[in-house]
Structures are given as C-alpha cells and as structure tokens.
Design brief:
The protein has 556 residues and is α/β, with parallel strands linked by helices. The chain starts with a helix and ends in a 29-residue tail after the last strand. Helix content is 42%, strand content 21%. It has 3 domains: 115 residues, 2-Layer Sandwich (Beta-Lactamase); 173 residues, Reverse transcriptase/Diguanylate cyclase domain (Alpha-Beta Plaits, 2-Layer Sandwich), CATH 3.30.70.270; 231 residues, Alpha-Beta Barrel (TIM Barrel), CATH 3.20.20. The protein is built from 20 helices and 17 strands. Helix 20 links the parallel strand 16 and strand 17. An 8-stranded mixed beta barrel has the order 10-11-12-13-14-15-16-17, surrounded by 6 helices. It has a 5-stranded antiparallel β-sheet with strand order 2-1-5-4-3. A 4-stranded antiparallel β-sheet has the order 7-8-6-9, with helices on both faces.
Length: 556
C-alpha cells in the first residue's frame, strides 16, 4: 500500500473518530506520530509540538503504568472499548477522559489510534460495585459467559487457555487507607493489567478485594504478572502495609471431555469459593483445581438431573394481613429431597445454582410445579394465591423469560392467583430491562414483589427503579429495627414511603408476639414468620391459622 493511500485511510479513520472524541493520537512504539483535536484548550500545547513525544507526556504520571497496560492491550487484541485515564492540563491541572483505541498492523508495522473524550458519557459510577466499575473487570457471571465462549471457540488441537489467579494480601487495609479517587485508580490499574494479560482483552474477573482471575494464553509468565501487580500496589503505598502478591496458572482441562459452558461454570464457582476462603493458598488451590472443577462439574450434572426429574418439594408459608389476621397468600418455598442437603436447608444448593448460572432452571421448574399444585386446588376466588421466587439472575435470562411466557399462556387460569417474588440474593444488572419484564407480568395480571428488602445496598435503588406491588422487608432488618434506638422511626418512615408510592409492605421472620406488635405499630401491611407456622407441604396446617387470636384490634 502506498504511503499516500495509508495517510488517506488514516485521515478517514481520524475524521470518523472526531464524531466521538476531543483528542486524537496515532502512536507507534509509545511515541506520538500524529495528534489532532482540542490540544491547546485542554493540554495547553499545540498538536504539532507533540509529534515525536511519548504519549506519557500528556498523561498524569500516576497513570503511566495503567497507560502502558492499555497500550499493550490494544497492541495484543486490536482494540480497547473504554478506560478512564487522567491527563495533564495547563498549570498541572488533572482531568479525566474516556480513552478508546484501535490497533492496525500494515507491512509489519503496528500503529495505535487513540481517541480521548473529556466530556464523559457518565460522570457517575455504574450500578455495579465501585471498584469493579472502575477496573473494567467482569463480575463472576459475566466472566463465566465470556470464558465459555472463549473455550468453545478454541481451535482443534489448540492448547486450552489457562486460568491465572492473583491474590494480593492486605488488599482491604490498602484500599481503606486510600481516598476514593485513589481506590478507583488502584482498581483501574489492576484492571488494565489483567485485561492486557487476558486472551481477548476482556476475560478477567474481580472476585473479591485483592483476589482476581483471568483467562490467559497457555504458558503466560506468572512471575512477570506477579511483578506487575506488585508494582501497582507498591506505587499506591502497598509496601508500607506489607502487601504481597501471589499468582498461579491452572490448566482449564480437556475441552473434549467436558461441555465448555459447564467447564466455565465450574471454574467460576471454584474461583468464588477461593475468593471466600481465608485459608486456602494459591499453591494448594492450583494443585487441587482440576479435582475441584471436576467435582463442581459433576455437581452441575447432578443439579440438572434433580431439576429435570423434579426431585424437590413445594412447602407453603402464609403471608397474613397484619390487621385482620386473614391469609393474604402463600409463599412457595423449595425443599430438596435427600442428598447431602436436607429438606430443611436449601440455601446452599440455591446459592450454588445462582453462582453457576443454573438458577433459571430451578426457578422455571418451581413455577411449573406450583402451577401443577394449584391445579388441584379450588379455583373459586383468590383464597389460594401463591407466590414463587425469582432470582435476580433468572429475571433477564432468555430461557427463563421464554419458558415462563409459554407456561403462563398454557395456564392462563393462574392469572390473579400466581404471584412473583424477586429475590435480592443476586444483583440485577440491567434495571430498565428488568422493569420492562416486571411491567409485562403486571400487565398480564400477575402481582410482583421485591423480596429481601433491606438485606443489600441495592434495595432503595431497586425500589426507585422497579415498579412493584409490594416489598418484603428482610427479617434481619426487622430484628435490627426492634433493637436499635431509632428502629421504630426508621421502619415507620419506610412503611410510610412505600404507602405513598402505592407499594404494600410485608414484614418477614415474625417469630414472636413482641415482633408482631412492633411491626403492626410501624404500619406494616402484612406479616410472615414462624409465629404463624413453619413452612409445610400440607396447606391444612394453616387452617386454622396458628396464633390467630393475636390479631386483636391494635390499641394506641
């Protein structure tokens, strides 16, 4: 290709980039070969004066290490979707820009085209965890999907990718010692580093403070990765806190013998177990990873069989009107049969299903089993309304939505009788899409409530963005309100807020007369708890309602 045509293509590329960016650079070997844009007002220099200078000269020194990783990421993978870096303006002023990039290789020479925008699309952190949003790293569910796609796309005979695990000791004390802007900078630097090491520039995950993972090409130099992460921590003051970094590379196994999606789920679940453990070293984990992933994959298969064969029961627990004592509806609770988890302890298996991306299977099967149960009950009136749980991970899963729609169309008589409770055990990422789905259900005649309200930091965000019929106030929040000096004022204010929004309230885990009187005085509309009977597969257990005599008129 002639030099003239090369320049023509470059000029077209830069012209299109101006639709988005304020600053444009062509970089080769770290040096600026071409610059254009609002250089003087933003940087205080002319575009021509930057030619031949290192790109470092326009970037704040504290972001130089991150810039190196971002440039490496572009060179290795051809593009950078977006990262936040700080530039040096006139009089030493620092300002944030969104940076994207694209790499082109012609005749053995690689040019990086960098576009920077000072007017950020969003000046606020995303809906996810602050450090995860700043780092650009995936959360566990996103990593599992990316890893599965990458493992599935590997060519025949190609060595499988490896899983790199990174553990940084004393990470939480380090983060707590930093102001918010530096915490974000630490996360961004580590994120850029791990993304540069990953197979596609994206397949890297933040597991917990100081624990990370990345799918890397086979044979990646773990000592170099460890050194780079350690240098990032050292630059942020990690040396004074005794921060150390450990890494391990683990083969991902034989792709021919295990489904790629199950393998990715197994890897992700095992990494999550590692992130929760304080005692397991990377060396120990690396030595047992194949065994642990294999065990997880086997457990995934067993879970599928459990759901497909319907090896679980439906237990009911009443939700009772706080004034009249009348049963408003029942909540359907899953109880597994036998196995290592007894019928009284389903939490761990449900958590396993959420973390391995299989919870939508159980949620859909549970809805089907509840509808089958309802078909054997009298259909005259709304006496036997039943609510089923929906995990936040299921809510937007295409298979769940499609399967539920077919189920509801087949059994249109459940309209007004079947209800849905969205649990907060798994965070909902796309709230607008979630609300669209919720409104579709409500428009069909199905009531929807938010479960576990007050158990997580996202509760009020959910309440403001999701239009629902009711919220169920988490039992722990009720207990805290009972004992806290300002508990009554807080719970009363919450119920009043919900009332003004047209949302009813359900107080959970009401196990004593004292708790019942307290939540009634605070204005809760409905109550649920062992005071009115433990969950039972026999609905006759609640006729008459245990302790129904407690619902005498409230006296002030």
């Amino acid at each position: 290709m002639s030099a003239e045509r090369w320049r023509s293509e470059r000029d077209c590329y830069l012209a299109l980039a101006f639709c988005w960016a304020d600053l444009l650079f062509q970089v080769e070997d770290g040096q600026i070969r071409f610059a254009a844009g609002a250089m003087e007002p933003l940087l205080g220099v002319t575009a021509e004066s930057l030619n031949g200078q290192p790109l470092h000269n326009v970037v704040a020194p504290e972001d130089h290490a991150m810039l190196d990783h971002l440039l490496l990421l572009i060179a290795r993978h051809g593009r950078l979707e977006e990262a936040i870096v700080r530039l040096r303006g006139p009089q030493g002023r620092r300002f944030r820009v969104a940076m994207t990039g694209h790499g082109l290789t012609r005749a053995g020479e690689t040019s990086l085209y960098i576009a920077m925008r000072s007017r950020l699309a969003s000046e606020h952190p995303g809906e996810g965890d602050e450090s995860t949003a700043a780092s650009g790293l995936l959360e566990s569910s996103g990593f599992s999907r990316k890893a599965a796609t990458r493992l599935k796309s590997g060519g025949e005979g190609e060595p499988p990718a490896e899983l790199a695990l990174v553990s940084m000791s004393n990470a939480e004390p380090l983060m707590e010692s930093l102001p918010p802007v530096d915490r974000q900078r630490l996360a961004a630097n580590i994120g850029a580093c791990l993304r540069a090491w990953s197979v596609d520039g994206e397949c890297a995950v933040a597991l917990s403070p100081g624990k990370y993972g990345a799918l890397t090409p086979p044979g990646a130099d773990m000592s170099r990765l460890r050194e780079e992460v350690a240098q990032i921590a050292e630059a942020m003051g990690g040396g004074s806190l005794g921060v150390t970094v450990d890494t391990a590379a683990i083969a991902c196994g034989d792709r021919d013998s295990i489904d790629e999606y199950d393998l990715a789920r197994g890897l992700t679940y095992t990494m999550n177990e590692f992130s929760r453990s304080e005692d397991v070293s990377l060396g120990t984990l690396a030595g047992r990873m194949s065994e642990l992933v294999g065990r997880t994959v086997t457990r995934i298969s067993q879970f599928r069989e459990l759901v497909q064969l319907g090896r679980f029961n439906v237990a009911m627990q009443p939700i009772v009107h706080a004034r009249s004592g009348q049963v408003h509806h029942f909540e359907a609770l899953c109880r597994f049969r036998g196995g290592e988890r007894s019928e009284e302890s389903p939490f761990q298996l449900i958590q396993f299903a959420e973390e391995t991306g299989l919870i939508h299977w159980l949620d859909l099967a549970m809805a089907g089993k509840v509808i089958e149960r309802m078909s054997r009950l009298p259909r005259n009136g709304n006496r036997f309304r039943i609510a089923v749980n929906v995990s936040g991970r299921s809510l937007l899963h295409p298979e769940y939505q499609k399967g539920l729609q077919a189920l509801l169309e087949e059994h249109d008589w459940v309209k007004g009788r079947l209800m849905f409770e969205i649990t907060e055990s798994a965070r909902i990422a796309e709230l607008q899409d979630a609300n669209d789905f919720i409104q579709d259900l409500r428009g069909r005649g199905f009531q929807v409530s938010l479960d576990d309200f007050g158990a997580g930091a996202a509760s009020f965000q959910y309440l403001s963005k999701l239009d629902v019929d009711a919220v169920k106030i988490d039992g722990a929040a009720i207990r805290n309100a009972l004992t806290a000096p300002k508990g009554r004022a807080f719970l009363s204010a919450l119920t009043e807020l919900c009332r003004k929004m047209g949302v009813e309230t359900v107080a959970e885990m009401i196990d004593s007369r004292e708790a019942l009187e307290f939540v009634r005085a605070c204005g809760c509309d409905h109550v649920q708890g062992y005071l009115f009977g433990k969950p039972s597969t026999d609905m006759k257990s609640f006729a008459p309602l245990p302790n129904g005599q407690l619902f005498a008129p409230l006296r002030y």
